[in-house]
């Protein structure tokens, strides 16, 4: 179990490293440790929301996290307002 959790965290850290090194110039690297920690913990959710269901490529998603400060995690689509409750 420890090895599985360690592999999960290693994958998140590896994604951050790839974003810094292989996605192009990064004049302003993300220095927000809290944001990076959240990314390492929630990277599968971001991958699903931003790449699989969203409009970004995997390279853009990783570059945005490593060099542009991340971003919102899976914005919810606008929904219609709920109707007012009816009285019985």
List keywords for this structure.
single chain; 88 residues
Précis, in short:
The protein has 88 residues and is an all-alpha fold. It has a domain at 30-72.
Structure description:
This protein has a domain at 30-72. The protein starts with a helix and ends in a 21-residue tail after the last helix. The mean pLDDT is 80. The protein is 57% helix and 0% strand. The chain has helices at 2-21, 33-52, 58-67. The protein is built from 3 helices and no strands. The chain has 88 residues and is an all-alpha fold. The longest helix has 20 residues, at 2-21.
- Straight-line distance between termini: 53 Å
Strand content: under 5%
Tell me the radius of gyration: 17 Å
Q: Summarize the helix and strand pattern as letters.
A: HHH
Strand count, sense and barrel status of the largest sheet are:
none
Number of helices: 3
Shape: extended
Question: Could you outline the blueprint of secondary structure elements for this entry?
Answer:
Blueprint: H1 2-21, H2 33-52, H3 58-67
Helix pairs in contact: 1-2, 1-3, 2-3
């Amino acid at each position: 179990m420890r090895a599985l959790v360690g592999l999960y965290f290693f994958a998140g850290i590896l994604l951050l490293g790839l974003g810094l090194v292989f996605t192009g110039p990064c004049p302003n690297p993300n220095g927000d440790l809290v944001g990076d920690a959240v990314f390492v913990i929630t990277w599968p959710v971001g991958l699903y929301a931003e790449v699989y269901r969203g409009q970004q490529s995997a390279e853009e998603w990783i570059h945005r996290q490593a060099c542009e400060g991340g971003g919102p995690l899976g914005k919810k689509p606008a929904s219609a307002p709920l109707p007012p409750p009816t009285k019985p």
